[in-house]
Specification:
The protein has 156 residues and is α+β, with helices and mostly antiparallel strands. It has 3 helices and 4 strands. The chain has helices at 2-17, 22-72, 139-142, and strands at 87-96, 102-112, 123-132, 147-153. It has a 4-stranded antiparallel β-sheet with strand order 1-2-3-4. The chain is rod-shaped and about 110 Å long.
C-alpha cells in the first residue's frame, strides 16, 4: 500500500506541479534575443572599425612609399629633378596595395619663402595625400585624412 501511495505522489508531481510556465519561457526567450542582438551589434561595429583601420593603414603605407620617392629626388643648385617643380599635381600616381585596393596620390609642392622660383628656392614643402580610388559608402571612410607634409632643403 505504501508503494502505491509513492507512485501516486510521483504522478502528481509529473502532472505539472513543478516547472516553468509559458509566460516565464517567453520572457526568458525575449531576454536571450535582446542579448544576442546586442552582441551582434557590437560585433558588427567592431568589424566596421577594423575595416576602416585597415584602409587607413594601407593609405599610410602608400604615403610612406611616396615620401621615400620624394626624398630620393635630387635637390641641388644645378640639376634638380623635375619631380620637385612647384605646383599642384592631382592624381599623380596610382598605387595598388597587395590586397588589390587602389589609391590615388595627389601632391602639392610649394617653394618657400613664398613666391620664389624653382631655380632660386632653397626650401620646399611637399604635401602628399592618398585617397582610395573607389569611394567607400560610409561617411567617415570617405575622408581618411591620410596626408603627410615633408620639407626639403636644397643641398649645396
Amino acid at each position: 500500500m505504501k508503494v502505491k501511495k509513492n507512485r501516486l505522489r510521483i504522478r502528481n508531481i509529473a502532472r505539472g506541479q513543478h516547472g516553468f510556465t509559458i509566460p516565464e519561457v517567453i520572457v526568458a526567450g525575449m531576454i536571450m534575443v535582446i542579448l544576442c542582438v546586442g552582441t551582434l551589434t557590437v560585433f558588427s561595429y567592431a568589424v566596421r572599425i577594423n575595416r576602416g583601420n585597415n584602409l587607413r593603414m594601407q593609405a599610410l603605407s602608400v604615403l610612406q612609399q611616396e615620401v621615400e620617392y620624394y626624398r630620393s629626388l635630387k635637390y641641388v643648385p644645378v640639376g634638380t629633378d623635375a619631380g620637385l617643380n612647384q605646383g599642384t599635381y592631382t592624381n599623380v600616381r596610382q598605387h595598388t596595395t597587395p590586397d588589390g585596393r587602389v589609391f590615388n596620390v595627389s601632391v602639392v609642392i610649394t617653394n618657400l619663402p613664398g613666391g620664389t622660383s624653382d631655380v632660386n628656392s632653397t626650401f620646399k614643402e611637399i604635401a602628399i595625400s592618398a585617397t582610395p580610388a573607389v569611394a567607400e559608402n560610409e561617411g567617415w571612410l570617405q575622408n581618411l585624412g591620410t596626408n603627410v607634409t615633408i620639407q626639403r632643403v636644397r643641398a649645396n
